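Exercise: predict the fold of this chain.
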Amino acid sequence: MAPPPVATATPTSTPTRDVAVVAAGSGPAAAALLALPVKGRAAKTGYSRDAFGLAWGADVDQNGCDTRDDVLRRDLTATTVTAGSGGCEVATGTLTDPYSSTTTIPFTRGVDTSADVQIDHVVALSNAWQTGAFAWTPDTREQFANDPLNLLAVQGRLNSQKGDGDSATWLPPATGIRCAYVARQVAVKTKYRLWATPPERAATARLLTGCPGQTLPTEATSAVPPPDPGADPAPPAAPVTTSPSPRPTVEPTSPAPAPVQSAGLDPRFGTCKAAIAAGYGPYNQRRRSRVRLVPRQRPRRHRLRAPLTGAPDARHDGLIAPTAPTGDGQGLSTPGSGRVTG
C-alpha cells in the first residue's frame, strides 16, 4: 500500500527538557518520536466512524476472517471457534487485559458478553482524523482502522474510558505497559505519517526517559495468525430418527352369515308346534319368500242370557218386554225398572 500523503506540520513549541533527554539517546522509540512532525490538532469537522469503513466487517488482509476475530485469535488464549466458521469466529477464550495487567476476562461470544472484550485503536480514529487522516482517501482510512499494528484486545470498560485520548490525556492504569503503549502509538504515527501535538510529544518523551532502549513494535510482531480450519469443530451430527415398524396389515373379516331358515318357518321358533304352543299361528304363506305371522285367535266367551219372553225382541224393535215374575240380573228386566239390563 502506498504511504498516505504527508500533512505539512510546523513546530509550535521549542524542545522541552524531556525531549532533549530523549534526544541524547534512549532507543529506537525515542528516535522515532523526535522524527514525528509536531502540530496542533486540526478541526474534528467531518469526522465519523463510517469515514474509516465498516466497523470490523472488513477483511482487509483477505484471509477470510473479519478484523475483530483476527485480533481475538491473536490476543486471547485457550480459544475455541464457532462451528462452521472455517476457524475464523472466536466463540470463547481468555484475555489477560494488557491495560490493567491483573484482570483476566473470560470471553464468550454473545449479545450480553461480547462487549466485555473490545478491540482498541491504540491511536484513536478521532485522534488520527485530527492529526492528518482527514486528508486520506477512504481506502487508506479503512486500511488504518483494520491494521493489526494499531489494534489490541482490551477490557471493554477501560477502552470506553480512554475514548479518543492521546498520551497527554490518558494512559493505561498498569504502569508496566505504558512504555510499550506509547511506543506503539509512535510506530503507528510513523507508519501513517501522522503528526503529534506538542502536549502529546512531551508526555511521550517523559515516559520514554524511563524506558532506555525501548523498541518499536513491528508489523511482524503484530501480525494476526491465519485461521485454522482444523480447529473448527465438526457440526453436531443430526439426530438419528428411526421410523416405527409398519403395523401388519389385518385383512377385514366378513361377519358370519346368518343361519339360513327353512322357507315357511318363523325364525323365532324351531317348529310350527313350538310357535303354536307360544300362542302364534296359524301361518299363511302369501308369497314364496315371505311368511306372515298371524297371532292365534283366542275363542270369544259369550255370557249366557235367558231368553226373553214375548215377541218381538225388545232389543230390536224398542219395545219393553213384559215383566217376568223373577229375574237373576243376567239380561232380565228388573221389576218396576222399565229398563233392559245386560
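Check your answer against the key: Residues 8-14, 311-342 have pLDDT under 50 and may be disordered.
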